[in-house]
Amino acid sequence: MATDIFGKALIDYQNGNYTEDIRTFSSLEEEDKMPLPYLFRTYEEMPLLEQKALARSSGTVLDIGCGAGSHSLYLQNQGFDVTALDSSAGAIETCLLRGVLQTILGDIHSYNTKKFDTLLLLMNGIGIVGQYENLNSFLAQLKQLLRPKGQILVDSSDIIYMFEEEGDELPATHYYGEVQFQMEYKGQKSAPFSWLYLKFEDLKRAAEAQNLKCELIAKGEHYDYLARLSPAVYS
Fold first, then answer.
1. How far is CA 49 from CA 30, 60, 181, 204, 219, in A?
2. CATH architecture entry for 46-180+198-234
3. Which of 64, 178, 209, 213 could form a disulfide with 235 if both were Cys (CB 3.0 to 4.6 A apart)?
4. Residues facing residue 181 across a β-bridge
5. Rounded (5°) CA angle 95-96-98
């Protein structure tokens, strides 16, 4: 748990030891906070895009990057067969403490045990790709986890507005949506990690290269969107 900064914070909050939020530092030269109560939000407190994704979920569901398990809990309470997956041991322990019945501690990049009707990647879930060059192989991996008529529901944001507002030039060496992050909680820092923010048109292009149909389901209030990917032969 010493290096699982995210998981340690979740367990503290779950156990009533909430004294501070997670601090985040990014290559965009921004310091921010990740409020822990928000990670434990109810359905009513979720953004509209997340509510729309949950409403479109069907069949067996894999909640990828489940965090504290708020999406999994909601679907479970609605009668869905849902499994929560996260690479953070603390996140999975938190899910179990909150009552999520089925969990997987593991990395989605190598998971291949079971197929699902719905794959959920919410809270900018596509971010776990890290770098744009990994997008095609990541979508190919997700496709292998889909049942024949399955779907991938994913949200992200196009952060090009951040460069336009500041008048900055786009990076010449990498995709502008690749951001380096580091988290800090109670004096401990995580290892730096990459997170991807993806323009819808770029997601669609990569999806179609994997013979996946990519539909724009809804746009949010701040350059964010919800998309649905499905095997093109069944669309």
1. 25, 20, 24, 18, 8
2. 3-Layer(aba) Sandwich (3.40)
3. 213
4. 26, 193
5. 65
Q: How far apart are CA 1 and CA 186, in angstroms?
A: 13
Pairing assessment for the beta strands 212-219 and 178-185 based on DSSP bridges:
unpaired
Q: Which two tokens stand for residue 203?
A: 């997601």
Q: What is the pLDDT of residues 27-46, one digit of tens each?
A: 987 789 999 999 999 999 99
Mean predicted confidence (pLDDT) in 108-128? 95
Q: Is the dihedral of CA 78, 79, 83, 88 positive or negative?
A: positive
Assigned token pair, 210: 């994997």
End-to-end CA distance of the chain: 43
List of residues 6+ apart from 41 with CB closer than 8 A: 70
Question: Domain boundaries in the chain?
Answer: 46-180+198-234
* Token representation of residue 204: 């669609």
Question: Would you say 194 and 233 are in contact if contact means Cβ atoms under 8 Å apart?
Answer: no
pLDDT mean over 104-123: 96
Q: Which residues contact 1 (CB under 8 A, 6 or more apart)?
A: 7, 8, 11, 89, 90
Per-residue DSSP letter, 110 = T
User: Which amino acid, one-letter code, is at 190?
Assistant: S
- Tens of pLDDT, residues 185-203: 999 999 999 999 999 999 9
- Is-above-0.85 flag for pTM? yes
Q: How many CB atoms are located within 10 Å of the residue 45 CB? A: 12
